[in-house]
Design goal:
Blueprint lengths: L1 E3 L10 E3 L3 E6 L2 E6 L10 H22 L1 H8 L8 H10 L3 E6 L10 E7 L4 E9 L5 E6 L1 E2 L6 E5 L11 E8 L4 E7 L1
Antiparallel strand pairs: 1-4, 2-3, 3-4, 5-6, 6-10, 7-8, 7-11, 9-10, 11-12
């Protein structure tokens, strides 16, 4: 992809030149790309799934531009070369990640804590923790609170007693602005 800076001959140029090049305006700059021919082979199942996900991301990006609150959130993270629409699409395509679940302070007693570290390319909106007994029964679940000291960790305070923590499972699920999920489960 070529970019032109200060070239009077290409300033504001848009459209196709023959079957070879395409000129367009992006963030106030003229960009040129080679034209790609029509696809002759049908998409396989994986490619079709990727195409559908990209279409959903484009729809989400357009919707963000219509909601002033969401547009303002993305505008705070704008970087050169990427507008709000592109940031929203990128955020839609990349789910949050649970990096770790720290169980050192969890003893099975109500009031003990679990620390979850989650990240996202834009912002983690919330993290939910579920605690399952060794039998598989759900003991409790709830939302965490962001640790204000580091802004990275989410703290969950247990509300129910877990008399036999050994063999229990803890699952943490993070959600981002487009409501994508990323989860991690550990066995005690």
């Amino acid at each position: 992809m070529g970019r032109f800076k200060g070239n009077d001959a290409t300033r504001g140029l848009q459209g196709n030149v023959g079957d070879f090049y395409n000129y367009r305006q992006r963030l106030g700059k003229t960009v040129t790309t080679r034209q790609v021919g029509k696809r002759t082979k049908p998409l396989n199942a994986d490619q079709e799934q990727i195409k559908e996900r990209f279409i959903e991301a484009a729809i989400y990006g357009k919707a963000v531009l219509k909601i002033p609150e969401k547009e303002a959130l993305y505008a705070t993270k704008k970087v050169p070369g990427k507008g709000v629409y592109m940031l929203a699409m990128t955020d839609y395509l990349k789910p949050p990640v649970i990096k770790s679940i720290n169980m050192t302070a969890y003893t099975g007693v109500a009031g003990s804590t679990i620390i979850v570290r989650a990240s996202d390319d834009f912002k983690v909106m919330r993290v939910r923790v579920s605690i399952y007994a060794a039998s598989g029964a759900l003991l409790e679940e709830g939302d965490t609170v962001l640790n204000p000291e580091n802004g990275l960790d989410f703290i969950y305070t247990a509300t129910a007693a877990n008399n036999v923590p050994a063999g229990s499972r803890v699952k943490a699920t993070a959600y981002d602005l487009p409501n994508n999920e990323g989860s991690l489960e550990i066995l005690l």
